[in-house]
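Render this sequence as a predicted structure.
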Amino acid sequence: MSMRMRKKRNFEARMEACEDLLLAQGTNGILNMKEAVENFRAWIDFEKAFGNNNPVALEIGCGKGGFVRALAKQQPKWNFLALEKMSNVILTPLEAVKADGAKNIKFLNIRAECLPCYIPENSLDCIYLNFSTPLPKLGYATQRLTHRNFLEMYKKLLKKGGKIIQKTDDRDFFEFSIEEFTACGFALEEVTFNLHENGNPEWNIVTEYEQKWVERGLPIHRLVAVFNGA
């Protein structure tokens, strides 16, 4: 039996203190997910949100935010959206970015299914999927973030030439993803089943989850899927 995460102390006040970093939360009272995705639109004006017209990248499932914070420092001329559906989880990276004073990171406290409600079509340059839950049980395939249902959604949000960069430690999930990307017309590049075979590449930002598996000697799988507009 799984235990629910205890809400952080002074949660509401702490979230309110970070509200300038939060571009979307929930579905504004719409309870039916299908209805929200099909009918609700509150598209974000990225120029207004970030104060510039720099390219925009999205990380789906940012967790504690270590990856997106490091990436934002590495790529200061990019804007980053960090999505985390769990409010109790997203508070940690929100407060960290607030303390850092980083201007090129904003957050989405929503489910990935609701992205079309908030993200304008053809507006993203890159999507990062770092160690998404593989959901290996039979019947859960449609909930995987690389299932073709999600990939077709991402295609509407990406610019032509936009990329999806995936990392995972789950071989079965990775092979499933390769099949789904191919079926949806993405061109695959930089496909590797052992990213750290010759040590960590200089450009690779190692997530906390990734570091745990690397220390155990387990391979990390990575690919880049390019959307060519088809």
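Summary. Strands lie at 22-25, 56-60, 79-83, 105-109, 124-130, 158-168, 187-192, 221-226. The chain has one domain: 11-24+42-226.
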